[in-house]
Amino acid sequence: MFSAVKSFWSDAKKRDTTLMLGGMGSLVFGTGPLAYAAFAFGARGAERTYRAKHDFDGTFSERWARAITFYEGTHQDSKNRAMHLVGMPFIVAGTAGLTVSSPFNPLSWPVYGPSLASFVGGWALNISGHLAFEKNNPAFAEDPLSFIAGPVWELDILRKQLSGQAGETAEA
Question: What is the pTM of this model?
Fold first, then answer.
């Protein structure tokens, strides 16, 4: 058992992805600061692994441009993108609600319940879009910056659609 845990923990990509996803997922149990610490630790390690794997030592602006380009390339199906446009705001709203509420405090249940449904429903929409339409893994599986680049890109696409600039590429 110990050797299996040691083997898993020594695989940086698995460890860091698990910490990121585990941190996000543990929000549903009222873990607030611990959840964000696990996510941040995993994201930091995942970014180090990404930079080493891609032999990248550029600036944040260059890294951001790579993340946006990668995210756009992994989100070409219009149905998947539509699901993301609905799912991402639900995830963000759910995350905010889970941060300020607790499953153990009955006074916060009016916030916790809808936040939990929003968070889980948003993730279900996004993952279903990848499975059913895009036929690929979510972008964050390869590029940890996609956790942030994705919502920014999606909001930029929506902004351009609403302002009549729909054919233009999203940039940060």
Answer: 0.85
